[in-house]
Amino acid sequence: MKVLLTKDVYKLGHAGDVKRVADGYGRNFLIPQGLAVLATPGALKQAENIRQKAAEQRAIMNEEMGVIAGHLKGLELAFAARAGETGKLYGSITPQEVADAIQKKSGYAIKRQQLDMQPLRTLGEHTIHIRLTMDLIPEIKVTVYREGEAGRSLPVAPAVEPAKTKPVKVEPVEVEPVEAEPVEAEPVATELVEDEPVAAESEAESGETAEPAPEAEA
Fold it and tell me: How many whole angstroms separate alpha carbon 27 and alpha carbon 205?
């Protein structure tokens, strides 16, 4: 099915874009969450207006979050964990644990849904992206080492005082009601579309930004 995005959706597109998605993803997540509407001729007439308003809001968010992105970029974290001989952890390092560690080290509160990651289950270095906005996605490095062994020496980051930013009021893009038009059933698309939120190992949540994602325990 084809949908018109009314909000930015991580890894899918920007507000105002027309995308073909799987029927289940569109009808059960995107449309109910107010992230998209069916791409009918009437809705498409509003695409440019939606795109323009979303771009203005995105610019404001990027300006506000730019300082935070700069401080988080390149951040390195380390976790000790029990693991077998093959390097597989007996448990896992969850997105919530990573979010807590980010706040402790940087002073910035990050929701687990903003982390583009699955629970970490192996020793070694892992690269994780933090979804601040559609355009600002700083990358951090997480090292998981065997409990009882010396952890990798990580640089000590200087204390960072969170930047004082003005609260940003982001209003949803209003879409004028569109008269329902007959829509012929289309075959379910076979392309894979990633869900917005990322769920933690012990929780399942539906998920801004993403939301696929249905941040995740992201």
Answer: 18
pLDDT tens digits, 106-145: 999 999 999 999 999 999 999 999 999 989 999 999 999 9
Of 134, 139, 115, 161, the C-alpha closest to 60 is: 134
Count of C-beta atoms within a 10 Å radius of residue 188: 13
3-state secondary structure of 148: coil
124-130/115-116 β-pairing: antiparallel
- Token look-up 């018109």 returns 4
Is 217 in contact with 203 (CB distance < 8 Å)? yes
Report yes or no: 102 and 77 within 8 Å, Cβ to Cβ: yes
Beta-carbon contacts of 84 under 8 Å, excluding residues fewer than 6 positions away, are 90
